[in-house]
Design a protein that fits this description.
The complex is a heterodimer of chains A (about 240) and B (about 290). In chain A, about 70% of the residues lie in helices and about 0% in strands. Chain A has about 240 residues and is mainly alpha-helical. Chain A has two domains: about 140 residues, Translin, domain 1 (Methane Monooxygenase Hydroxylase, Chain G, domain 1), CATH 1.20.58; about 90 residues, Translin, domain 2 (Methane Monooxygenase Hydroxylase, Chain G, domain 1, Up-down Bundle), CATH 1.20.58. The radius of gyration of chain A is 22 Å and the shape is elongated. By secondary structure, chain B is mainly α. Chain B has a single domain, classed as Methane Monooxygenase Hydroxylase, Chain G, domain 1, CATH 1.20.58. Helix content of chain B is about 65%, strand content about 0%. The chains are: A mainly alpha (about 240), B mainly alpha (about 290). The interface between A and B is large, with 47 and 51 residues. Chain A: This is Translin. Chain B: It comes from Lindgomyces ingoldianus. Chain B: This is Translin.
Chain lengths: ~240, ~290
């Protein structure tokens, strides 16, 4: 066509195509890793979902079974961190943020059920892993501000905690079905504490805000379970108050 | 912080969430500043484009009144870029891309369009990037992504279309550049003028087209071709946006083609400078009642 004396210098579009292709290659590389991570996340949650039908006394087998997919997820995250740290973090962040939230959520649930650092005897439910602890498990930095590297963001952590609350709401009801009247009370306190934490934040209109707005309904649901129990005098005395 | 504790029930996670609040507040403030700047940059860019649309010639320096009239808008844009450049550094270089992309694209459109009017060529990505960089503050350069650039070009084709149609409606000719090298003696008349004199059957021959300086339509067609050849990455958001804009771009090219067709077919029947009148436009509407 109109070559060098045309409107467009052909070099412009050659350069553009090269840049677009470069991003495309990064995209492809990341997508493969992210799909692997997604698979391991699903397996983790699949294993952990047995918690809904397993009494606390038998929970350790579930928690142990979850360790393998969690470690697989960590391996995928390590690979992701290596690849993603070569490019500006926020240029591709939207590709993996969902999967990182899910990975964090799986670990939070596992940790809440007592999977993390269970020293001594028995399993203690009800612990919220901090963002730093998640970073330790995932082997990545968290909440970075001063350098452009792969990390777990505050938003991703908060999304994961909301998912945890949603899951625990279910667990509160299912515990009752299992004959466990103690755990709903524990969930109730936990969810309330976490909800109070979220109220400290000044969220702006975005996804996080929308999901946070839904938390109050979860709090109410768990409260209803505890109410039902207390009405029938089923709440164990020692945990009351 | 004491107040907040007073209002809210105490929670073992208070300290943790207070830390998050501090970081999130900073993030939201940055985002807010970028959103506002992006909006202002968009508005100022649109005004620059409006001023440029009042011109009738391409391939020559802007007249002083245009430069003078647009100076304030360039000033606004530079000021806004300076104000947010600190917010778009390091880790945050791409963080607010969704917020700044609109302003960037509109600014690209303005730069592209002005560059086209001045030189009748497409500004390169590197040059466009340097223009934004030159406006950024001391804190560092504001990124102009490849996506911003490409989407800006798509939008620019719409402006070139408007420019062409206006020119055809008011001057009765398609804007064309001045010849770069002048092998032909009679370069003065624009490309469509010979067609006006010719029999309709013959139209514009390929030969005569080649001899003429490039006109806006041939530029638009070339741009269209280049953009259509460009292969965006698969399954990306950018691809969707580009496809939407590509549709609009094709329509723009066609509008100019249609207008030129009309000019070619009926051009000789109409007196020079004849503009489709209001009366004629309305007549069928009245008849249909």
């Amino acid at each position: 066509m109109a070559a060098q004396n045309g409107m467009v210098d052909p070099a412009i579009f050659q350069d553009l195509q090269a840049r677009v292709d470069e991003d495309g290659a990064v995209h492809d590389e990341l997508r493969d890793i992210i799909q692997t991570l997604e698979k391991h996340n699903r397996t983790t949650l699949f294993v952990l979902s047995r918690a809904h039908s397993t009494p606390v006394s038998n929970l350790s087998s579930v928690l142990e079974a979850a360790e393998e997919p969690i470690q697989n997820a960590v391996a995928a995250i390590t690979k992701l961190a290596q690849s993603a740290s070569k490019v500006p973090y926020y240029k591709f962040n939207s590709m993996w943020t969902r999967q990182m939230q899910d990975a964090a959520y799986g670990m939070l649930f596992w940790g809440w059920l007592g999977g993390y650092k269970q020293e001594g005897d028995g399993i203690r439910c009800g612990r919220l892993l901090t963002i730093e602890e998640l970073g330790e498990i995932m082997k990545i930095p968290v909440n970075l501000k001063d350098r452009d590297e792969f990390h777990l963001t505050i938003e991703e952590y908060l999304h994961a905690t909301i998912s945890l609350v949603e899951e625990l709401t279910r667990l509160a009801r299912n515990s009752v079905t299992l004959g466990d009247y103690e755990r709903p009370v524990l969930v109730n306190q936990f969810v309330k504490d976490l909800f109070a934490g979220f109220q400290i934040l000044n969220l702006k209109n975005d996804n996080l805000r929308r999901r946070t707005d839904g938390l109050k309904y979860r709090v109410k649901e768990v409260e209803d379970v505890v109410y039902d129990l207390s009405l029938r005098d089923l709440v164990p005395k020692k945990t009351e108050g | 912080m004491g107040d907040a504790k007073h209002e809210q029930p105490s929670t073992p996670y208070a300290a943790m969430f207070e830390g998050f609040r501090k970081d999130l507040d900073e993030h939201y403030d940055r985002r807010e500043r970028v959103v506002k700047a992006s909006r202002d940059i968009t508005a100022a860019s649109k005004k620059i484009i409006f001023t440029l649309q009042r011109l009738r010639n391409i391939g020559q320096p802007l007249p002083p009144f245009t430069v003078k009239g647009n100076a304030q808008y360039w000033g606004t844009i530079a000021e806004r870029y300076k104000a947010i450049s600190a917010d778009l550094q390091g880790l945050n270089a791409y963080r607010y891309n969704m917020q700044i992309t609109h302003g960037n694209q509109e600014f690209m459109e303005a730069i592209c369009f002005q560059h086209y009017i001045e030189t009748q060529t497409l500004i390169s990505y590197n040059e466009a990037k340097m223009r934004v960089a030159a406006m950024s503050g001391e804190a560092g350069v504001v990124q102009l992504t490849v996506e911003d650039y490409i989407l800006g070009i798509y939008d620019m084709t719409g402006e070139v279309m408007k420019f062409s149609i206006t020119s055809m409606a008011t001057n009765g000719k398609l804007p064309a550049g001045k010849p770069k090298k002048g092998p032909q003696p009679s370069q003065e008349p624009p490309s469509d003028q010979p067609a006006d004199k010719m029999d309709i059957d013959r139209g514009v021959t390929a030969q005569s087209e080649e001899q003429q300086p490039r006109n806006v339509l041939s530029d638009l067609r070339e741009l269209r071709l280049r953009l259509e050849m460009l292969e965006p990455p698969r399954t990306s958001k950018f691809r969707n946006e580009a496809e939407k804009k590509a549709t609009v771009m094709r329509e723009s090219v066609e509008k100019v083609e249609k207008a030129l067709y009309n000019l070619t077919v009926r051009g000789s029947e109409r007196p020079k400078g004849w503009v489709p009148g209001v009366r004629e436009e309305r007549r069928p509407e009245v008849e249909s009642y």
